[in-house]
Design goal:
Elements: E1 2-6, E2 11-20, E3 23-31, E4 35-40, E5 47-54, E6 59-63, E7 66-68, H1 73-82, H2 87-102, E8 104-107, E9 110-115, E10 121-122, E11 125-130, E12 132-135, E13 148-154, H3 156-164, H4 171-182
Parallel strand pairs: 3-10, 4-11
Antiparallel strand pairs: 1-2, 2-3, 4-7, 5-6, 5-13, 8-12, 9-11
Length: 183
């Protein structure tokens, strides 16, 4: 692999792939540190979503609470050199950020899914299921640029409708939620 560009949160990497035994082809991909989405479900089987203004949509969207697994590209690149499993970093990020942004203490988190972005964009999302938690406070601590309007819990039937009407626009999260509410 060869790094061709480094920016603040994204780097571009070239890599070779064996097409046939006599032929190689060079591909490139953009790489960004992974994210974590947390599915927080209470005993009544309602899932917490946040109403959040998204600049890329120029509109508000219902989303799973989400966070970066690592804060910087440099931190992620160093992690990649270690060959360690990312799972403990995912769980740590979910626990830390759920306390800060949602005001809950997560107990017994479980990674249930990994969704990749595509062939030429490495930006995996890990999904953590949480059914055991304690409310620690009634306010959140948002970072600059985060525009979370409010949080609300939705039933499986409501989430099914939100997926169909595209009130939940992030496709990877909609797919994970669909698997949960349709099983």
């Amino acid at each position: 692999m060869k790094i061709t560009h480094n920016w603040r949160i994204v780097q571009v990497v070239e890599y070779e792939v064996d097409i046939w035994w006599w032929k190689k082809k060079t591909f490139e991909k953009a790489r960004r540190a992974p994210g974590v989405r947390t599915i927080i479900m209470n005993k009544q089987k309602k899932i917490l979503l946040s109403k959040e203004y998204r600049y890329e949509l120029d509109a508000s969207d219902w989303r799973l609470p989400w966070w970066k697994v690592m804060d910087t590209l440099d931190e992620y690149v160093e992690f990649l050199k270690s060959w360690k499993s990312i799972d403990s970093f995912v769980v740590t990020a979910a626990i830390r950020e759920a306390k800060e942004e949602v005001g809950i203490d997560i107990l017994n988190p479980k990674i249930i899914s990994r969704k990749v972005c595509g062939a030429n964009m490495e930006r995996d999302l890990r999904y953590v299921m949480v059914t055991d938690f304690a409310i620690s406070r009634w306010w959140n601590e948002l970072e600059d640029g985060e525009c979370i309007e409010w949080y609300e819990r939705f039933s499986f039937e409501e989430i099914k409708k939100m997926i169909v009407t595209e009130d939940i626009q992030e496709g990877r999260s909609a797919a994970v939620l669909a698997k949960i509410v349709l099983s």
